[in-house]
Design a protein that fits this description.
Layout: E1 21-27, E2 31-38, E3 41-42, E4 47-50, H1 59-73, E5 79-85, E6 87-89, E7 96-99, H2 110-117, E8 122-126, H3 127-138, E9 146-152, E10 156-162, E11 165-166, H4 196-199, H5 202-211, H6 219-222, H7 227-251, E12 255-259, H8 270-279, H9 285-289, E13 291-294, H10 301-312
Parallel strand pairs: 1-5, 5-8, 9-12, 12-13
Antiparallel strand pairs: 1-2, 2-3, 2-4, 6-7, 9-10, 10-11
Bound molecules: zinc ion (ZN).
Length: about 325
């Protein structure tokens, strides 16, 4: 396996003090990605697995096996561990209080259990916070003072950073996916009704793919030729714009980073989404001043986020 290194952007000298190796496990809605860094630079190799891997057996043993296997493949022996989770953690960032996609992790003192298995430093973080910290550390949000991240994938997650540090009253990011957007009573994966994710998340793209017999990766392209699919896409964007503009109105960030698998899809009408968001913001101050950018680090974002996190937790 080659260990090509992606250049470490223009990280400052103190950031390069992150000489110790790092393995980052980034758990998302449908995939688990394992990545690593050495000497302040992300390694190119990323291992991607389905979250189905957690459906049988002890989930902590599964995590340990993935991390050790990937580290061995990369020739890493002495490394810190960062795990990004689409979960609510307790205030000590130890116990997994709620996780919709991998119920077997719920209730576990996960950081303590991993620390028993790894002699190295182990840190847990909310998955979107971790990705956005990566963009602040080495990507599109570098050095921005106040950044709202909105990541649209299987679900819709958010995070807010002020000078690179997450602002949160508890352990989570910003649950943009669970902002109420309509009043039609549709059930959300969280158990409540009328959240954004009940109307406009990656899960709906699977339904459209079947309904319109269009491969999922071509949905946004084919919408230009299929008026009824275009109508659904418009509603999808309107609901997302309502939730995102609600978050912007509350937080007043200088930059909004848009990321996640849905936003990366071919033909995704990101300019239409941004226009719809601006239309829902107060004119002229918020609507004109807030800037938007696509996330740029892709699968490396979590590993740069891990570097940022460890540099702050020294
Ligand atoms: Zn919900």
């Amino acid at each position: 396996m080659d260990n090509h290194q992606i250049p470490a952007a223009d990280l400052t000298a103190d950031r390069l003090a992150l000489a110790k190796s790092l393995v980052v496990l980034d758990i998302g809605g449908t995939h688990v990605r394992c990545a690593a860094a050495r000497s302040g630079a992300a390694l190119e190799e990323v291992q991607q697995l389905s979250t189905q891997i957690f459906s049988n057996g002890d989930p902590v043993k599964v995590l340990e096996r993935i991390i050790r296997g990937f580290a061995a493949d990369q020739g890493l022996h002495d490394f810190d561990v960062v795990v990004g989770l689409p979960a609510t953690l307790d205030r000590d960032m130890d116990v997994v209080l709620k996780i919709n996609n991998i119920p077997s992790l719920e209730g576990l003192k996960l950081r303590s259990m991993l620390r028993e298995r790894f002699s190295e430093r182990v840190v847990l973080e909310h998955d979107i916070v971790l990705q956005l910290m990566g963009e602040w550390f080495a990507g599109t949000a570098r050095s921005s003072r106040s950044v709202l991240g909105v990541y649209s994938g299987t679900g819709v997650g958010g995070a807010f950073l002020l000078d690179g540090a997450p602002i949160r009253s508890k352990s989570t990011g910003i649950e943009i996916g669970h902002i109420p957007v309509r009043n039609e009573g549709r059930r959300c994966v969280c158990g409540r009704r009328d959240c954004l994710e009940a109307y406009a998340s990656g899960r709906h793209l699977l339904d459209w793919s079947e309904k319109y017999a269009v491969p999922i990766e071509r949905l946004f392209i084919e919408a230009k030729n299929l008026p009824s699919l275009a109508y659904e896409v418009k509603g999808f964007l309107e609901d997302q714009a309502t939730a995102v503009s609600t978050a912007i109105t509350l937080i007043d960030p200088e930059l909004v980073v848009l990321g996640g698998g849905v936003i990366q899809m071919a033909g995704y009408p990101i300019d239409d989404l941004i226009e719809m968001i601006r239309q829902r913001l107060q004119d002229p101050e918020l609507a004109l001043s807030v800037r938007f950018a696509r996330s740029m680090l892709g699968h490396s974002a979590a590993v740069y986020g891990g570097m940022c996190l460890l540099s702050k937790s020294k």
